Amino acid sequence: MENGSHILTLKNGFHLWSHTENSGGKTKVIAVHGGPGDNHESFETLPAALLENEISYYDQLGSWYSDQPDFSDLALAEKYLNIAYFVDELEAVRQQLGYEKFVLLGYSWGGMIALEYALKYPKRLNKLIIVGMSDRDRDFTDRMKDEVSKVLSADEAAYVFKEANAGDLNDPLFNQYMARFYEDYYGRFSKSSTTHAVSTTNMQVADYMMGRNPFQTVGTMAGWDISDRIDQINTPTQFMIGDQDMIPIARIQKIIRHMQNAKLVVVPQATHVVIRDNPEYFFQQLNNFLNN
């Protein structure tokens, strides 16, 4: 694929924005962003750090530069806002980019897509990189409870857990406490340099697929668990998580014992935004995996 931004037209008639850099690089890499409902911006540093590799990333359906259908139409939401759709969307992107085989990098929610893709389309992959994700959704939400308890006082944490259990996610004090937690956690080692006048997260997508309760996934992602199939992934795989990630290190250590060709890289001084928190170490380890 030539360098630059491209509009990919899917067979369903929708359009996705994609971007490619380092065209002609020895390895083709497709990066799949987190969310759901977020966008590609966390990958904008990839091409300069991975100069030997052709890097492509895209916004998923409903995200930022790509088409954003009105998912208040429940028929549309049911058809497209599910894991199976986004796995096949990735395969459509691969076809349009013209990659016979490639390296797949999935970050957070994109890691779910990447793992499911590796199970469904293994012959398309040279290598697999999973950043900030395990093999089941509850690991993230369970660890969220632990992290909140570290930042908030015991009384404050008890309050947010109570309100979340009651489903009162609009409570002002609940949101005040959670905002303080998010500011501490996601700003612990780095600050985002990306600002926008409007929100770039499509909450229709996020709400339908996972809901707004930080301690329990609802919607079409709820209960996602491939732990009984993870041993079927034979693609050379590297899991990468921060030492203070939402994904427990012990869980990934258990996962790789069930895989034939997998390793774990723990990035020091990094939370769930591992690419931003410690880019020097992250890209050193990523380049080692890609180029060896």
The total of helices stands at 11
Low-confidence stretches: none
The separation of the N and C termini measures 23 Å
Choose one word for the global shape.
Answer: globular
Pattern of helices and strands: EEEHEHHEHEHHHHEHEHH
CATH class: Alpha Beta
CATH-defined topology: Rossmann fold
Main beta sheet: strand number and arrangement?
Answer: 8 strands, mixed
Approximately how much beta-strand content do the residues carry? Answer: 15-25%
Question: On the 0-100 scale, what is the average pLDDT?
Answer: 97
Taking all Cα atoms into account, the compactness measure Rg is 19 Å
What is the CATH architecture term? 3-Layer(aba) Sandwich
Structural class: alpha/beta
Q: Oligomerization state of this entry?
A: single chain
How are the strands of the largest sheet arranged? 1-2-4-3-5-6-7-8
Number of domains: 1
Keywords: Aminopeptidase, Hydrolase, Protease
Family: Belongs to the peptidase S33 family.
Domain AB hydrolase-1: 29-278
Protein name: Proline iminopeptidase
